[in-house]
């Protein structure tokens, strides 16, 4: 069988230059029958593989029986059940050809979103190691919130995925980057938010203060949160490459600058830029509350003798003057504070590393002073109990005559 190039050359020599079949065959070193066939054929030659028997076709009735009973059975399991020994890729392709006849279709509609109605929320874990301090590195979560109507991306890295940090992060993004509150915040079943609309402690009061509600999606419903998922992918492919980070704060600083450019890009689906649409979105949202919600970590504990409190995996020193008393401990995304009846006993920068003891030199010095005073205190003089009995007679008005009788 000749190639397409030879076929084209034969036709050009015969039709265009007027060479005979004999001359063409001699010039190209081909058989005259081959040249004659090429000249008589109007279309280029095509290779057609002759049909051959297939073991998969022999197994097709058995495959259909399994798919009829179990439409979602994986092709690898079907191959194992039927003892298939050939190419698993070839087997998968044939199962995929048959499966639509038995598996019910799951169509996905194109959704439209009203301005201000919802924002989709998710955690993105960047595949990079970031210095956390104290010799530790990690990949902390990045909270991403995207209003569905405008596709305006807001994001920031958080120390942990615990409820206090998630609520504090949501408030910071809504207040600082979005400037309003969507009517609905769409989440999957993130443990820090809750499971199956059974919310974690503090979530209900947070949504009540903001006059919004959190909607948690059912499992296996990725289309309902596709906007924020695409934003996560965009962050990973367009923000991360070529960047290095010295700390979580450096990551967030670079992210803020990049988001300004990202929200000025043209979105094909919208035929507009998110920065142009966010104003309409924001106008339809709920205004920010006049009083900030109570977010972050908080607890009330009795300060122990070692004058340290534990906050989200780390120990922070406190003024030892509060030892033995109940103190209020609070932590936001940046600081840890301890107060006693409104008086500040400690304030530390939040540490992102884990298992650390953070000591304020002032607290250590105060503890040393108090310890020295305790060890060198003057012992109290014990009261004497060997008083003269006449003192008690006088105190109770009892007197004796010289004969020894009570007067």
In brief:
This protein is 37% helix and 17% strand. The chain has 13 helices and 16 strands. The protein has a 5-stranded mixed beta sheet with strand order 5-4-1-6-9, sandwiched between helices. It has a 4-stranded antiparallel beta sheet with strand order 10-13-14-15, with no helix packed on it.
> Strand portion, in percent?
15-25%
Q: How helix-rich are the residues, as a percent range?
A: 25-40%
Number of strand segments: 16
Order of helices and strands, N to C?
HHHHHHEEEEEHEEEHEHHHEEEEEEEHH
Which helices and strands, and how do they pair?
Blueprint: H1 4-16, H2 21-28, H3 32-40, H4 55-69, H5 75-82, H6 88-98, E1 118-124, E2 130-133, E3 136-138, E4 142-147, E5 154-157, H7 163-178, E6 184-187, E7 194-195, E8 198-199, H8 203-210, E9 213-216, H9 226-239, H10 248-262, H11 274-283, E10 297-302, E11 308-311, E12 314-317, E13 326-331, E14 335-340, E15 343-349, E16 357-358, H12 361-375, H13 389-395
Parallel strand pairs: 1-6, 6-9, 12-16
Antiparallel strand pairs: 1-4, 2-3, 4-5, 7-8, 10-13, 11-12, 13-14, 14-15
Helix pairs in contact: 2-3, 4-6
């Amino acid at each position: 069988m000749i190639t397409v190039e030879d076929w084209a050359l034969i036709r050009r020599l015969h039709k265009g230059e007027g060479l005979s079949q004999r001359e063409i065959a001699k010039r190209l070193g081909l058989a005259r029958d081959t040249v004659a066939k090429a000249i008589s054929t109007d279309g280029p030659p095509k290779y057609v593989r002759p049909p051959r028997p297939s073991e998969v076709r022999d197994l097709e009735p058995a495959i259909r029986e399994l798919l009829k009973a179990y439409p979602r059975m994986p092709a690898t399991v079907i191959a194992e059940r039927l003892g298939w020994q050939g190419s698993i890729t070839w087997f998968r392709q044939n199962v995929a050809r048959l499966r639509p006849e038995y598996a019910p279709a799951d169509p996905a509609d194109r959704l439209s979103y009203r301005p201000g109605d919802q924002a989709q929320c998710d955690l993105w874990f960047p595949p990079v190691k970031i210095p956390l301090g104290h010799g530790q590195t990690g990949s902390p979560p990045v909270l991403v919130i995207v209003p569905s109507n405008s596709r305006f991306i807001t994001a920031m890295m958080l120390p942990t995925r615990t409820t206090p940090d998630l609520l504090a992060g949501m408030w910071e993004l809504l207040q600082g980057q979005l400037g309003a509150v969507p009517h609905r915040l769409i989440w999957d079943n993130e443990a820090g938010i809750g499971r199956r609309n059974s919310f974690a402690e503090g979530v209900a009061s947070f949504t009540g203060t903001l006059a919004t509600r959190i909607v948690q999606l059912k499992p296996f419903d990725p289309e309902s949160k596709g906007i924020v998922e695409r934003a996560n992918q965009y962050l990973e492919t367009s923000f991360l490459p070529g960047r290095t980070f010295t700390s979580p704060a450096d990551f967030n600083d670079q992210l803020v600058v990049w988001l300004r450019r990202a929200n000025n890009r043209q979105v094909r689906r919208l035929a507009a830029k998110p920065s142009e649409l966010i104003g309409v979105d924001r106008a339809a949202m709920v205004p920010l509350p006049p009083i900030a919600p109570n977010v972050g970590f908080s607890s009330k504990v009795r300060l122990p003798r070692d004058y340290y409190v534990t906050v989200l995996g780390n120990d922070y020193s406190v003024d030892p003057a509060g030892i033995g008393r109940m103190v209020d401990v609070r932590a936001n995304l940046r600081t840890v504070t301890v107060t006693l009846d409104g008086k500040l006993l400690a304030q530390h920068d939040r540490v992102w590393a884990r298992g650390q003891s953070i000591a304020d030199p002032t607290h250590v010095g105060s503890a040393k002073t108090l310890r020295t005073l305790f060890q060198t205190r003057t012992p109290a003089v014990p009261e004497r109990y060997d008083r003269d009995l006449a003192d008690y007679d006088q105190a109770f008005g009892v007197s004796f005559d010289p004969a020894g009788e009570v007067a």
